[in-house]
Queue: 4 jobs
Job 1
Amino acid sequence: MALGEARTHVRFFVILNIILGTACLLQVTQAIGNRAYNNVSETALLLFILGGAIAPTCVISVFRELHNPQQSDVVYSLPMSAKERYASRILTVFYLQLLPVIVWSGIATAVTVLLFNYVPWEVDSWWIWHNTRPREALQMFFLYVTSVLFLETVTVICAICCGRRAEMRYFTYIAAISISAAPLMIRTRLMSEMGGQVTKPGIIYFLWSFSALGDYVDTSISIWRVLLVTVSSTLISLGVIVAMFFFYRKRDAGTAGKPVVSRIFFELVILLGLVTYYTLFLFEGSPETVVAVALIIYMVIHLVTFRDILSGRKVAWWLGKFTATTVLFLFIVFVAYMTDGFGSIHYIPSRNLDGAGILVSGDGYMTGYAGSEAYRRSWMRDYNDVEYMDRKEITDAEVRKVVEICQKYAASGKKSMKGFYDKLWGTESYYGFLRESDRNEAFEVKIWLPGKPEDAEAVMDQQFYLTYGQALQLVKELEETGILNIRRFWK
Amino acid sequence: MIEIRNVTMDFVGKGVGESGKAVRALDDVSIQIPDGCIYGFLGSNGAGKSTLMRLMCGVYQGQSGQILIDGVEAWDNPEAKKNIFFVNDETVQYADFTLKAMAAFFACYYDTFSHETFSKIVGALGLPTDRKMSTFSKGMKRQAVVAVALACGTKYLVMDEAFDGLDPAMRKMLKDIIVDQMLDRNATLIVSSHNVAEINELCDRAMLLHQGKLVFDDEVDNVRGSVCKAQILRKSARVTEEELTSRGLTVMQYSTAGSIVSAVVKGSEESVRKILDGMETDYFELVPLTLEEVFIYELEARGYGHEFISEG
């Protein structure tokens, strides 16, 4: 049945294969040419992205009974159960869209990997953007395929919850971007920025989103992480597809052509989209502009979706919903401010930190370190300060003691409404804000795992600002513990 | 047999864009469609004919009641749906198909599809199999869909206003082909149309829906025989509607022209004659009605069309 169904979408299949085939050919010729400083075809990359981005077109076209009343008469009257119909649709999508993606990108990856013969000793970011080692090529392949599957899955959700093509399409893009960006941005804005923690987000933020695509340029992550993301994302996508069957089977031809079938879905996507938008733009300054644009987009979406029946009461209700959502969001941000990122200012890794490297630096003011062999070597190389660089092994308890002292000072700042407004929007830049407050002394606490070099990813990286007086007290207290080798640049 | 038992169907706020107000499309409808008959669906615009057909074919899921095809529920049941083929009143959904592709598509789903029957009908109609249906005329599109429907070889064929918009010659041609094929295999044809004369000519049984409610469901001959028009003359005093009603007659329409009274009444000719014989009249005559007239009078008795007639 799936093959019979696929035959009705030949045009899409041919176009997609032309796009992806061209991309593959471009990449293969680039790799064969192996221009030493550029073995990745950017045009091929763009075409692969295009081939993946049109997944919603395929899904919406295949699930035509959900949006086309004439087609729904034919499809629902065919001798198929809902289970058979749904399975047939999903297999058709995989055959038409996912299979070409896997095949063409797989061929391009395989050729790139096999023909790669330039291995620089040192890797810099320019080189990474223009070349790819076998590991990165494989990373890119896995993450690309899982991203396409993710987009297909989100489209299936939107197709089942909507009854009109336009709504299926734009809700797909809103939902996919929001699912990808919202968790990361909420973490960044509400926890990291409010609590000062700048550590790389855990793998859970990348398990089912586009965000994992950023991993392919990161040379420090392991292939096992990529495989974990690939397998998890695939399993989540398949799980969601299976779960959506229970909603699909409740649909009948009566809902085809209606804009949105599920109110809960509509409200969730709109809410998620608004939160994502605010986390992306509300903290960048000009809150009035950001909120005004959000209101316009919000109202336009409602007007387009509910264009069949409009009334003054409905418009007033939408305005009320928007206002309530915006106020609630700001209240949550305020709570994050008051609690220093919901307590993330007090975060310290729970793992055993015996032998870890720790560095506390008051930017341009003081530096104290312990346990970091590579840092000691680099300092010796640069400054030849033997006395300062006495080797010291540090224990888990000592690490926690140092961090506890630092976080005590970090969390000691007074909170106020003015402080909240200033922190978010008081000036054009955060440094401008600093000029206006008395907490101008920047400090940073970094912890590395035992044996890791100084330039490796820190398991904790916290930044905070103190007043001059607090900075003096902090340094004094750290010196008194005798845990760190502290060097003051100014007495 | 197709059994429709106490089926009620509301269209209520299924989309977020709806006002939430329920629209009752079918209200406690029960009918039986026996095997081997040609059954006509009649009704005013928006009466619920198409909705009922879609419920029978598993396109809609009703709120309450049962629809059984040979004893098996129709909704989400391939066992039931493999015996029924639905031809709706549109052909736009087949625009991108060629006839050959359409046949291949339906052959995937219907085990009873016969390529031989398909080729025979398509040949008889002279339809091209390699051209896209978007290039066909309206009549050709209808013919194409009918050819595929008949080739599927299902026990029940449901056609929703499938002949509307076709010229009389085309209609006759299609009807002849359908009836021949259906009679050959003792299949059941269910057809809806606004052309009551066509239903009268084609169907053994018919039902009438009005605003979702069933008005009648019977053999066409019985339906015709259940209403008659009485023209009564009494020179001394005109026969009144109340007088007729007091005699036990159900008057559907009453009009006068001088001393002559015309009354459309329910009942067979025989029973009405018996009643009128018992009344004091100078002369009366009973006129049998066509199915179309019965259709019109039944709906008018239910107030259909009165809102469009200006008073005074």
Job 2
Amino acid sequence: MNKVNSNREGTHYLNPYLGGVLMGLLMIATVFISGRELGISGAVKDTVVEAAHVISPAAAKAHPYYGQYIKEGKSPMDTWLVFEVLGVFIGALLSGIIYKRVRKPFVEHGPSISSKKRLVVALIGGILWGFGTRLGRGCTSGAALSGSSTFSFGGVMVMLLIFASAYLFAWLFRKLWT
Amino acid sequence: MNRNYFILTLIMLVLAAGTFFIPKKSMQQQVKPSKLLWEIIQPTRYVSTDQVAKMIIQKDPSLELIDVRSADEYARFSLPNTINIPLDSIVNENSMDYFGIPGTNVVFFSNDAIKADEAWVLTRRLGFNATYVMKGGLNRWIETIIQPKEPAEESPRTAFETYEFRKGAQLYFTGAKVETTTAKKAKVVIRRKKKKVVASGGC
Amino acid sequence: MGPLFPNGLISGDWNLVIAVFIGIAFGFLLEASGFSSSRNLAGVFYGYNFVVLRVFFTAVIVAMVGLLYFNYFGWLDLSKIFILPTFLPSMIVGGVVMGLGFIIGGFCPGTSFTAIVIGKLDALVFAVGLFIGIFLFAEVFPFIEHFYYSGNLGNVTLTDVTGISASWWAFGFTVIALAAFWASWLIEKKVRKRIKEYKF
């Protein structure tokens, strides 16, 4: 509450506990309606599968990983998660407009690194996430958040591991953020 | 501000602690023995052969007949529109799909009522509602529907009405036998529950 | 009664329409809580901003406790909902890789999407990385297929594995989360005195 960040004007966030309670209720509603939970990375996977399918249908179908998601007469992107992620974009835009956070494209980075470096590490982080979500059967939303709230053993395990591993490596990468 | 958070913390703790006091429901809900015993001695779980005959004739869509005798016996003779689930495979995963379909009444039958009764207890124990036993089984079926006896003259009028109905039913089940059996083969509508879990998910 | 879709009370098409609205609510809450900033997210690992911890664990404990009550009132059949399957070795490695990705990239997939729409280029690059990562995974999949499927415990819950009832887990998580909220408040106050150039 003392020193001001150069690249952001005063911005207002929802009280974290209110946001958390609402998100918890949203998850209950999701389970109640659809019997499943929120997720993000599954939709990205579906998009990659679709792309592979469009580029080379035969090769994608024969591929041991893509193949299991390709079904006759149904696009790999015709899934619940893809529609949900579409909504995520809309919802985030709404919130961005309401709280006046939508801006011209810019790079947000820690005080000790340049924009360029931030972009490079973001790309590396993204690749690690992409790889990790497939091994972990989901990301923070799908595996950690939704998995743990439905008492899934794997979900709780992934949640604890994500946080534990991030804390473990935090010291190594402290230059990026502080 | 701090006081509000303190209250919220307390509320959340109380709510979480409250879950200890709600009865546990396991994945496959089982019926309590005392409740089961009470239900076993209730006569309402029986349906008479007349009722079953009436439902078959009226093509009642809610009726789901299940023959719990062995496959051999089933092949030799059974009622129309019947699903055969021998007693020893009644708690199989596959058989489960036939029970608890919304809007259907499952009626078990065997030669006498004993096997059917056992099937009823098993499914009831697993928490399935709307299951019944055909009283007297196929033996009673033969006695009453296929070879009905004329009531004595001094019997009440209702006995004669029942007899009239049975005579009609007899015609229905035996008279046009060739026709109905062929039609039956084609018409067996087997209803199954949709698969339980939407197996898609993950992030 | 619930879940509505697996019980056939709503059709598949409506389920997809509802998915969009659920997504809108999810995206809104993520963005409104401040998850669209990688610096807010990374803050939890350096002690200057615990928004992730607060929102995340509040959501988890509310959903956990709420689901138990829903099950009790008969609104929801917990045996019919999707339980994330557990594949021990691959999920352990996956979790560690994701944690490393979190501290390096500063986002997780969902938060990066919310950051893209408010104009953050680093989030866009992160999302491109996601696609590349999944593509790479598919490329090496034939070599790690055995590992990927090993240690399959099926769709097990905490109760299945430990034998401890769901109520205990919910209560345990609640106590830990609430304690963490109070602790984080104290830590944050201390760390923020030392941090430069950051608006909370």
Job 3
Amino acid sequence: MKPIYFDNNATTPVAPEVLDAMLPYLKEYYGNPSSMHTFGGQLHKKVEEARARVAELIGADPEEIIFTSCGTESDNTAIAGAVEVSGGKRHIITTRVEHPAVMNFAKHLSRKGYRSTFLPVDSLGRLDMKAFADALDDDTAIVSVMYANNETGVIFPVAEIGSVLRERGIIFHSDAVQAAGKILLNVKELPVDMLSLSGHKIHAPKGIGALYVRKGTRFYPYVIGGHQERGRRAGTENVASIMGLGKACELAKAHIENESAYLSALRDRLENALVKNCPDSRINGDTENRLPNTTNISFEYVEGEAILLRLDEHGICASSGSACSSGSLEPSHVLRAMGVPFTLIHGSIRFSLSRYNTEAEVDKVIELMPALIKDLRALSPFGKKI
Amino acid sequence: MWDYTNKVKEHFLNPKNAGEIENPDAVGDVGSIVCGDALKITLSIDKDTNTITDAKFQTFGCASAIASSSALTELVKGKTVDEALKITNQDIADYLGGLPKEKMHCSVLGREALEAAIANYRGEALPLELAGKLVCQCFAVTEEMIRKVAIENHLTTVEEITDYTKAGGGCGSCIPEIEKILKDIWSVKAPEETPKKPKKLTNLQKIALIQDVLEKEIRPKLQADGGDIELIDIDGNSVVVALRAMCVSCPMGGVTLKGIEDKLRELVSEELKVVEG
């Protein structure tokens, strides 16, 4: 059974064009770009071409792009580097709804004598800008705020935050892993110093990421060794995946506006129908400022893992913020930070779409979901309260 | 992705005895929607024989919580109240061919509901493990509950307690108290170990013991999954078996054989090898 894949914020299928762009570098062109001989050395030029494409997606200059192994490495590098160059400043500001790649790194630094502030959000998942202003102090080494949230798709006011920080000379990093390639973003107009990207969220393979570092930003490498990436990230280049990421960024850039319209129409069709046809359901997050491909819906009185596994029977892939599906007993930290009641968090389901989803697939979910929810509610001791 | 047995999936997708008995003789209602698991069980009991004639459940929870509830209702039907009280959370898990260790609390919830229902039938107060003072506020778990589950399942670490009761899995502030309780339990009483394997066996003793382990430990589990095993021969340390029905086509056949071998090595002799005949 071909899966109906609505879990694209977790990972995406590799685009066929991306795979084609990669294959030669897994086969005949296996050289090392650092070699002196032509066979290897010629790949250096290819890597630089890919770098230019990644830069183009976000309006950066190619030399501002560092290839990494993943979004997490980009995030860790940005924060560790900022702390390293900050001249003894010991305060890190981030949010309560960050991805673990940032949140757990900040917590890790907290255990090493640094101080971390986790900014709250409101019930729609919007950042508390007053808390942000209050948290800033002369000890602040870096502020790291995600561009868009992976669970709800809510987009943060990165431009507004950046202009405050620029005035104060504080380094600003944004984890744009979910946003890049889905919405237009241009670092020429955006006062951000560092930005993390990930390949596998935009139809490149897993194991490749990038970190944008604005010219003039103080920087310290995280992976230390050889001179690759102009001394900013050691390790022999993952040439094939870099070629894949270059192609994926080129595709995203070329189609971003059409795709955004296509995805938001598809998402809205799904969301409106589910909320209309399933009683006691509601959308989590600010629908005014949201990624076009994401919807997070809570179905009250049912548990998320049960919903996911019933969907799984039909080959439908989604994800949930419930405790049971997370591998820990703690339900989604994002929905908890938003103050969503536990009864609704346990029944939260995220559908995240990509260009490869079709209206027919959406309609299949629309057709199945109301009966599926009704069936699980009939099993539930709380079902009667509907 | 949880590694659920086919039996768990079957009881999740087509639960047995879902619903509520009208005018039940016993009701057990445990857990809460906030904790993420809640189970209400209703029983019909023949007052003359104290036999449970019908059982139904309503569960809010994940696949393994629903499957555990379904299993519980199947297990109690036809049993007397006293017999039903002997059902342990491990029995529920075994009935389902096992649960992932992080999901054992689903089987514990089932047992709790049964105890609450029987207390309700007998007009008794809730047992202390349900009504006592809370250790874990996040998931409403009492000290008595932790003690009982720890002793019955030979749990020695906080992680195991969390897997079985959820206690300590929320804010974590009760972890020191759980450690204290565990220390208290096991400083008095060493955790019971699985039966020690005998030192030196004669060939006949060995054959008898292998047959016994296959019969009591292994066959019931395979049969629960619709499979079976037959002992064909014992040649020195080679145990030749034939797997039947479901197990033959099962892609996990290798694992099953390996599992049988591990069990036999544990309970009979390290040197045994299991081969398919």
Job 4
Amino acid sequence: MEIIWDSLPRMFDGAVLTLEITSLSVAIGLVCAIPLALMRVSRNPLLWGPAYGYILYFRGTPLLVQLFLIYYGSGQFSEALQTLGLWVFFRDAWFCAVLTLTLNTAGYTAEILRGSIQAVPHGEVEAARACGMSGSGLYRRIILPKAFRLALPAYSNEVVFLFQATSLVSIIALMDLTGVARVIAARSFAIYEIYITAGIIYLIVTYGILYIFKKVEYRLSGHLRERKDTGIAAESAALR
Amino acid sequence: MLDLKGYGWMLWDGVQLTLLVGVCALAVAMCLGLIGAWGKLSRNPAARMTANTYTTVIRGVPELLLLLIVYYGTPTLIQNTLEGFGYDIIIDINPFVAGVGTLGFIYGAFSTEVFRGAILAVPKGQIEAAHAAGMSRLQMVRRVLLPQVWRFALPGLGNVWMVLIKATALISVIQLPELMRNSDIAARALRLPFTFYFAASLIYLSITIVSMLGQQRIEAWARRGVREI
């Protein structure tokens, strides 16, 4: 019991790194995913072809392989990267971890967004066209806002998966929550106590993330809920 | 670029072990999933709580951490327990058993949800009709429920398989010579990390693509008796 108490501060440091990597990759990944999803739904084969290939590759191969490919694989091109001045980045495990997770989550998020863009009701698009919108205005005002709302439940799952997938960065010697737990467990031999403590921290953060997404979803669906405070809602419910 | 310098056979050995681990883990996951779904839908509160705790905990903790707990934690736990009874033995878990067990245990939680949804998708009237026709509970499950549950569960199980086969790469952490571990060894021996990890990624990608096509075929086959809309 004492060992758990003593190692908690270090575990929290690890959890901070885990959260840092997660939030950075989620944010950059989302920014990359939007153009990727738009390319994917385009009818031009020069646009959807590369996007399809990218999404297929990053969803079809294990994250661990992608991580090793970028972190260790870049070593094969160290000379070329040195002349380009990029070697400082690829030598750094933290940079490679964020890069891999960003590329990975961009692929998954783009696929989620593609599904929700295609799920936007056709009538809304038609109505927008009838009002004279087209091209970027149509996407900016009607399709994307609706698609984001439709994507939210699936996207919350993706964020949780990414948060848990950050545990893989401990394999390239980063001191995230899993990495710290592995070091403490190897030194103290209190294996299951330490790992289970780390597991509980992951569990709490996971359900915390899901709770936040639930709140956001609730706020964004305000116009779809029945009003409780007035008599009109009860009346209309009775009429139905 | 993809000159494997005679290490191709090693990757091939790895692929076979990866597929074997994947298939065994899927079998374990499906058994646990059926039991878990039964627990979740059971009227017994203890069974319901156990099943709910199982899915909640498993889906909240990373696979890598669960793998480390099972592989390193379980022998220590058993040894400590036995020490309490006065036995002094050293237990080593076989990496294959640990890998299959852990992956099966993790994806059992995911297939629990799949089977739960599939069981709930069977129209209630059919179950009532089976009772009215005088079938016992077991007969109802065997003749009415299971044949349809398989069909409803197929898309979800396909997803579980795709995630599972990619998760087998994690087992390389506990030194089981599957595809990822073997490409790691080859990459280090020849100092060609990009070549071998890229080759490994293409092999995983082809497994995924073949699985996708297979899933479509199996789903079409399972649907053959159903009226198309």
